[in-house]
Amino acid sequence: MLELNKIYNMDCNEGLKLIDDDSIDIILTSPPYNLGMDYNSTSDSHSWDDYFSALFTIFNECIRVLKNGGRMIINVQPHWSANIPTHHYIGKFLIDSGLIWKSEIIWEKSHYNCGYCTWGSWKNPSMPYLKYTWEFIEVFCKNSLKKIGEKENIDITADEFKEFVYAKWTIAPERNMKKYGHPAMFPEALVERCLKLFSYKKDIILDPFNGTGTTTKVAKLLDRRFIGIDIDKGYCKTAIKRLSNILI
Description:
The protein is of the alpha/beta class. The chain has a single domain, classed as Vaccinia Virus protein VP39 (Rossmann fold, 3-Layer(aba) Sandwich). Helix content is 31%, strand content 21%. It has an eight-stranded mixed sheet. Helix 6 crosses helix 7. It is globular.
């Protein structure tokens, strides 16, 4: 078993194989988009068959390490340009693999996604392109929709619960991506909501595409244990630095 509360610079397939069966409470991650993003150490432009084959190999390992009642939470972007409904492909695979679909959250980014000028068939119904201002947060469970935990390890407030259970979250995108040198980070507020709504303090959180470490940073801030894996050495150094800056 990989040691907890650490960042591992390795291929996630190799790292996942070092994690015990049924040992992880929450997997929270955002896989590469396959839209040509400029990640440092990996290509983000593959054929879709190759992309899904590689991704689903990783997801099989994720399912193996997830505890009964554990949750798999995946941030997915709509792929308008490639006509690939990625969230549907991922959802079908995970359901066919035995996970239970729990919920789909709309992460409204307030027009952040709409900075492109291609309209398709302008003023013509032949082939208009739709613009998406949101991404999806897909939530799946292993063997049970109910996750057992200790009452004293619940840290969501009543007001937070009432707000978070509405499945449209308006959260500004990460503004410091240039600072951290990563092209596709999700914001800390998004991770905080996911962890407070779907996990308990002391739970073990895994991000197999940890990038510059937003998941692991928020997990530490919220008194969760964690494992972060990423293939890029520079991203891992940044993730470790972000952890070291936390004073708790």
